Amino acid sequence: RLRCAKVLQLTLAVIKPDAVAQPLLLEALHRKILENNFIIVRRKDLIWKRSDSERFYAEHKGRFFYQRLVEFMSSGPMRAYILAKEDAVSHWRELMGPTKVYRARYTSPKTIRAQYGLTDTRNTTHGSDSSESAEREIAFFFPEFSVQHWLEMEEPHFR
Ligand code: RTP
Ligand code: MG
């Protein structure tokens, strides 16, 4: 029999140092998460060492923006969330908007990056780009958290 139950997906959302440094913006972004009906599964405030930053962005090593990105992401406190929702990955990325702030302002002015992004590097938020990267990134930020366990044991309670 077909069931109409929703299946929740997990994503990793990060409020970057530029936004955490602005208390009212941090608050507004937290409210945006709730208003968009994400379930906040875990939340953590943290500061990266430079080596954490280098490891997380290893895929971008060699790109022209790598050094400034690594520098920026280890420059101050961040807030990470594990969020759950149907299609959480794409919904959070829709809310964030395009990576580049000028493009975001031009094509999707209501998105987070369009409204609050400072530069292409200091662009307010991060979001996983697929279910697979969400799993990897959640493990990076929340090594004590088991995605597998949550999907099996917790997710069914939200249906
Ligand atoms: P994110 O991973 O942060 O959610 O953003 P994204 O997928 O839209 O962007 P990605 O290509 O994965 O790049 C990761 C982060 O690198 C910085 N960046 N700067 N100056 C530039 O042209 C440039 N391009 C990327 C941004 O901070 C971006 O979020
Ligand atoms: Mg990315």
Structure explained in plain terms:
- It is a single chain.
- Helix content is 45%, strand content 16%.
- It has helices at residues 17-20, 23-35, 50-56, 66-73, 88-96, 101-107, 112-116, 131-141, 147-154, and strands at residues 9-15, 39-46, 78-85, 125-127.
- The protein has a four-stranded antiparallel β-sheet.
- The radius of gyration is 16 Å and the shape is globular.
- The model has no long low-confidence stretch (mean pLDDT 96).
- It binds ribavirin triphosphate and magnesium ion.
CATH C-level name: Alpha Beta
What string, H for helix and E for strand, traces the elements in order?
EHHEHHEHHHEHH
Q: How many strand segments?
A: 4
Number of domains: 1
The CATH architecture would be 2-Layer Sandwich
Q: Given the structure, what is the number of helices?
A: 9
First-last Cα distance: 17 Å
Q: Average pLDDT, to the nearest integer? A: 96
Structural class category:
alpha+beta
| Strand arrangement, major sheet | 2-3-1-4
* Major sheet characteristics: 4 strands, antiparallel
Helix content: 40-55%
Shape by Cα distribution: globular
Instruction: Give me the CATH superfamily.
Output: Nucleoside diphosphate kinase-like domain
By oligomeric state, this entry counts as: single chain
Listed once per kind, the bound small molecules are: ribavirin triphosphate, magnesium ion
- Classify the fold: give the CATH topology: Alpha-Beta Plaits
- Low-confidence blocks of residues: none
Percentage beta strand: 15-25%
